[in-house]
Amino acid sequence: MTATDTAADRRALPHPAREEIRLEPVLHALSDPMRLRIVTDLAEAEGELSCSHFDLPVTKSTSTHHFRVLRESGVIRQVYRGTAKMNGLRRDDLDALFPGLLDALLDAAARQAVRLGD
């Protein structure tokens, strides 16, 4: 193991394996408006976005909490790329485990935004 491998291992963030993802934590993670906003942005981006991309109206520590809840529930994957923490939606895993759930939630969120004028 090289010094670079050791540094990368120290920065690796824990994620549940696909078979460990449960519906209850996923629904809890997606029940918060800020976290749903993050997931909506990631779904629209169809790729990774850095944490700094998101302009959330919350403190940095609250933002960090929201990303951690999404990661620990299995909704997103976070990896370090240099100094940036990149976020990607785990769409393949969620679609395999809960077919149609993510699309239904994103569609409902979009319809609600239109209805409420957000």
How many whole angstroms does the radius of gyration measure? 15 Å
End-to-end span in angstroms? Answer: 50 Å
Fraction in beta strands:
5-15%
β-strand number: 3
Instruction: Give the biggest beta sheet.
Output: 3 strands, antiparallel
**Assigned CATH architecture:** Orthogonal Bundle
DSSP helix fraction:
55-70%
Total DSSP helices:
6
Quaternary structure annotation:
single chain
Domain HTH arsR-type: 15-109
Keywords: DNA-binding, Transcription, Transcription regulation
Protein name: ArsR/SmtB family transcription factor
Task: Describe what this molecule looks like in 3D.
This protein is mainly alpha-helical and 118 residues long. The chain has a single domain, classed as Arc Repressor Mutant, subunit A. 57% of the residues lie in helices and 12% in strands. It has a three-stranded antiparallel beta sheet. Strand 2 and strand 3 form a beta hairpin. The model has no long low-confidence stretch (mean pLDDT 90).
